[in-house]
Amino acid sequence: MAADFFVSFAKHDIDWARWIAAVLELEGYEVVFQEQDMLPGHNVVRQMQLGAAATRTIAVLSPTYADRPYPLSEWAAAYVRDPVGVERTLIPVRVKECRPPGLLAAIVYIDLVGTDRDEAKRRLLKGISLERPPAEEPPFPGG
């Protein structure tokens, strides 16, 4: 059975990736994460294939993410399975100021830039939820 999430990140963003993976695991999701699932003796290609087979991929967005070859192949695998985003197999999570390039620019991301821990956690969990958020009455626009 495939894991719920694979966390894809550039090396410079490992602290964010650790935090995201931990938050998801503590919520009961099964997560494929490099530090925990690619240990000495493992075949890296096989473990990456397990990550690519996860139901959804979290792309930890930063200025360096899109420039690295491994993250490119990781998010591309999720994108190919669901290019129009119906299944939401690719969920970008922006952790540093950046503009997602190319095809990533068309995908709505969860924005954690400038948030505190509690707000970041709330946004992450709300953003990965498969349920449509309930309607909330906005402020009345009239005078």
UniProtKB/TrEMBL annotation:
Pfam family for this entry, one: TIR_2
Every TIR domain range: 1-129
Highest taxon in the source lineage: Bacteria
Protein name: TIR domain-containing protein
Record organism: Lentzea flava
